[in-house]
Write a structure and sequence with these properties.
Length: about 170
C-alpha cells in the first residue's frame, strides 16, 4: 500500500516537472519568461510630473528593480537587458474626494502615474508602451507630509505589480 502511494506521488511529481519545464521559464509568481532571457534592465524613471516629489523617482525605480530581482531569476543589468524597462513618472497629485455638505472633503486622493516602455529581446511582439496609474484615498484630517512615505510605498507596490504582470505574467 505504501509503495503504491509513493509510486503515484512520484509519477505526479515527474509529470509536473515535465509539464512546467517544457514551455519556457516559469516561477511560482506566474511569470513566463523566454528561456533564453538571462538579464533584465530597469532604467531610472525621472519625475516629469507637474508636481515633483523629490524622493519618488529613486523610490519607484528601486521598487521596480526589486520586483524583478525578487520575482524572477534574471540578473539585473545596467543597460540593454534581454528584458528592458524604461519610462518616466508622468503624474503625482493629490485631489479632494468625497466632498461633504459643508463643502469640505472627507478624503483626499494621492495618485501616481507612470509611463512605461517594455522591450523583450526574444519576443518583440510583447513589447509595449503604456501608462499605469494607481491611487489611494486618505483622510483629509491627516497631513499629506505625515502619511506621504507610507502612501508612496503602497502605490509603488501596486504600480510595480501591475507593470510586472503586464510585462511577464501574460494573464
Amino acid at each position: 500500500m505504501i509503495n503504491k502511494t509513493k509510486l503515484h506521488i512520484t509519477i505526479i511529481i515527474g509529470f509536473l516537472v515535465l509539464l512546467l519545464g517544457s514551455c519556457g521559464v516559469y516561477s511560482f509568481t506566474g511569470a513566463s519568461i523566454p528561456p533564453e532571457a538571462k538579464t533584465v534592465s530597469v532604467q531610472y524613471f525621472p519625475n516629469k510630473a507637474q508636481l515633483v516629489e523629490p524622493t519618488l523617482s529613486p523610490l519607484f525605480t528601486d521598487a521596480l528593480r526589486d520586483k524583478f530581482s525578487t520575482q524572477t531569476t534574471l540578473e539585473m543589468a545596467a543597460k540593454g537587458g534581454d528584458l528592458a524597462l524604461e519610462g518616466e513618472i508622468t503624474g503625482y497629485q493629490t485631489t479632494p474626494v468625497a466632498i461633504q455638505g459643508d463643502q469640505t472633503s472627507a478624503l483626499n486622493r494621492l495618485t501616481i502615474k507612470v509611463n512605461v516602455r517594455f522591450f523583450n529581446k526574444f519576443e518583440p511582439d510583447k513589447d509595449f508602451e503604456q501608462e499605469f496609474s494607481q491611487y489611494i484615498d486618505y483622510s483629509s484630517s491627516k497631513d499629506l507630509s505625515a502619511v506621504k512615505a507610507e502612501l508612496i510605498d503602497q502605490l509603488n507596490e501596486m504600480l510595480t505589480t501591475d507593470i510586472f504582470n503586464k510585462a511577464v505574467v501574460n494573464w
